Amino acid sequence: MAKTKTKQTQDHQGFEKYVRWFWMIFLGGILAVALLFLLASWSVFGELPDHTQLENPETNLATEIVSSDGKTLGKFYFDDNRTPVKYEDLSKSLVDALIATEDARFHEHSGIDARGTLRAIVYLGSKGGASTVSQQLSRQLFVGVASKNIIERIIQKTQEWVITTKLERQYTKEEIITQYFNIYDFGNNGDGIRSASNIYFDREPNELSIKEAAMLVGMFKNSSLYNPRRNPVGVKNRRNVVLSQMYKYNYITETEKDSLQKTELDLRYSPQSHRDGTATYFREYLRSWMKNWTSDKANKKPDGTKFNINSDGLKVFVTIDSRMQKYAELAVGRHMPRLQAEFFNQNTPKRNKTAPFLDLDDSEIDNLMKNAMRRGERWRILKKEGKNNKEIEASFEKPTKMTVFKWVDGKASEVDTIMKPIDSMRYYKSFLRTGMMSMDPQTGHVKAWVGGMNYRHFQYDMVKQGKRQVGSTFKPFVYATAIDQLHMSPCDKLPLSQITIEANKYGNPEPWSPENDGGGYGGEKTLKDALANSVNTVTARLMDKVGPQPVADLARRLGITSEIPEVPSIALGTPDISVYEMVGAYSAFANQGVYTKPVMIERIEDKNGTVLYQFTPETKDVLSAESAYVTVKLMEGVVQSGSGSRLRGKWRGNQTVYKEIITGYPYELNNPIAGKTGTTQNQSDGWFMGMVPNLVTGVWVGAEDRAAHFKSITYGQGAAMALPIWGMYMKSCYEDETLKVSKKDFEKPKDLSIEVDCDKYQEDNPDGDNDTPTEETPDGLEL
After folding, report:
1. Selecting from 3.10.310.30, 3.40.710.10, 3.40.50.80, 3.40.50.720, what CATH number does the domain 436-596+627-764 have?
2. Could you read off the pLDDT of 620-641 as tens digits, one per residue?
3. Distance between CA 247 and CA 726 in Å, rounded?
4. C-alpha–C-alpha distance, residues 189 and 80, integer Å
5. I need a surface site. Which of 116, 135, 230, 360 has the fewest CB within 10 A?
6. Cis preceding linkage at 271, omega within 30
7. What is the DSSP string of 508-540?
8. Tens digits of per-residue pLDDT, 16-30?
9. Which residues contact 519 (CB under 8 A, 6 or more apart)?
């Protein structure tokens, strides 16, 4: 009996011992966890973000380029192509899909989901994790990639919970959701929901449909694995899981779920790399401009440091109109492959042994290629590596793998091939290039900028960097000078006979006697007809009447900064000038003689919307409104009856000769248009400058080297090479009525004293008796 009692006492004491140990372990565990969290909050295991850091997490924000019509043209960034959005910029489907898939009790918990955590512990994560959206955000912002070490992982999880509770106290639920969407990397440079929406669907986040939102939310699981470009099947399956979750939590109906799960992804992939997308050449010009702007000591941050255009989240509002830019690029993309096909056809090795060059012998071609070799990137890199000239030249003869540009079925494409670098250089020199710019003459706002056909393969910008001989597009400057100085009318007549300007008269060392294309030296022509048909001898007579210096001075006042020699031959367009300069100069004619400097950047804002830069218009009076208007009326003749008349859609030319290169475009532009074609010697450069009252556009086409050109004027003239791009672009602009491109007449000055109506002029001067200067110069020299 005593033994029994002793045993019961011992059992009781043993039980109490276990109970005590249980409570000690339980309470100790609680205290240990509490201590763990306390130590984490004291930053013992590592620095935690303070209040300021929580308010302003350190994330790199790309500089966004915003068009005049509110579209994103592109961004500047190193690694993070991120542009944050606000909660109201998110579609409802995005928010619903996120909550249904990642955190169904998001609005019920305070950052940590106790039920989810308990479930994860009990089932060891087999029935889903416990991380809330708030926890995932804190991990993305401050904790980083999970460690494989169990101790470090526990510490990381503790820090994550501490940060999560701070985030929940500091931000609203809507702000947490917004930050989560903004911080996530969706792959393919899709940093944040704004970039991802643009890249995968060419939409803004608030425009996303249910299935598009479901696809992007599905990528939160693992954007590397669920990449729609590499794994479309897996992404579609994951998207369907998200749709099922949305149905489960009553965000969509069963009918919607079943219907949407049967659809394809329907991507509209629009890459946002620096070499792809819209307005690539303009964006590179802007990058250079922005670097200069940020280097200016007057444009510093409040703390005195320099702005970083790749990470400080600036917004640059530019004058480019995304619609007009698209039409300009489409026009180039439609015309250039057809023109290039004809160029290749005429420059096959059978037809031209020195293709693509003409008029050069083998030694001249060899020198040309060696000079190009020394200017290239390969030469620069190998020279930096310490290679000598002989070794570098030998490297150009070794076949290597490369990707080259090619027009395929009328579209810009890339082809993988093996080629000697020297052969690839010659291959690229066989391509015709183009430059195009469009501008509002009243405001100076540049609306479209196409510096070439494909920035990835042709990076030299032919709008502002490139300068080429302008040919007959320079002639309006000569005519404008004569109108301004001599008060001449478009209806005044001058003889077509040959003219020689003697040596040294204007500093020219030799006599200058230009010829007309195709001859034709008898009779006389009005100034309007002479400009319309680009008669060289009439232009030379005008040059002799006014002298080259006033013409060069006028061109400079019109914004042309390129060198213009003060010699008579500039009358025919011998100076090398950029498209940018020419468009700016012509704009003064459409703007009643007032030159407005081209504007590309309207303003710059920081990430908080504070205006850092605002452009100031630069204008100056260059010509009288009367002289500008008369010059415009002269140039209208080019489109009415001259080389630009094919824009009217009535002239079809020789269908057999021109095929679809020129005649295949029914422009049918019957509104008032002033313009001028230009063709340089040997058909190396083709130009067309065209304008309506509120839009001036210039186009140049030619090869990198002047020795690569069409054999004949048939294809090599400005009306064949450049004018079709202008015509297609303008037709698209007119079809888009939202652009409001003018079809009206150019504004006529109230005090016009020069007669521009040649029928009326003839009635007033039936015998040809007018105030037109005589065939003698003031010193009596016979012209």
Report:
1. 3.40.710.10
2. 999 999 999 999 999 999 999 8
3. 53
4. 7
5. 230
6. no
7. -SS-B----TT---SSEEEHHHHHHTT-HHHHH
8. 666 666 656 655 555
9. none
